[in-house]
Amino acid sequence: MEKATFAAGCFWGIEDRFRKVKGVIDVQSGYTGGTVKNPTYEQVCSHTTGHAEAVEILFDPTKVTYEELLAIFWKIHDPTSWHRQGPDVGSQYRSAIFTHGPHQLESALRSKEALEKSGRFSSPIVTEIVPAGPFYRAEEYHQRYHEKHGGSCSL
Prior knowledge:
Elements: E1 2-8, H1 11-19, E2 24-32, H2 41-45, E3 52-59, H3 66-75, E4 84-85, E5 88-89, E6 95-99, H4 102-118, E7 128-131, E8 136-137, H5 145-148
Parallel strand pairs: 6-7
Antiparallel strand pairs: 1-3, 1-6, 2-3, 2-8, 4-5
Helix pairs in contact: 3-4
């Protein structure tokens, strides 16, 4: 099993979307990329922790590749939007790829470069690509949010 960690706006929809991918074993919503240990949702929303709302994906690389997960990541959000996705505004909603090792770093950089060259976006891609640090699982009420509340992700 391998891990992938992405931030692409509110984690509820991102978690829901990745849960539907064959080969994904588990997805957790949480916080990463900041400086505060074990932050709460309220702390993250205060813009004082540096954390992004993110998802940590456990996947079977024999059934789905990291590159396939990257392709989904790029499709489900606007990587040109600085600290915003849809109605959600703030640095916790930034676009980021948190890499686990050199293979993921190289793949993420290659995929970003290919997307930039594709001409799909007229604005620059602002997605940060950084090594993964500690991932803090969000409060239980954030886990499987769409499943618990009858919603589903339209991403």
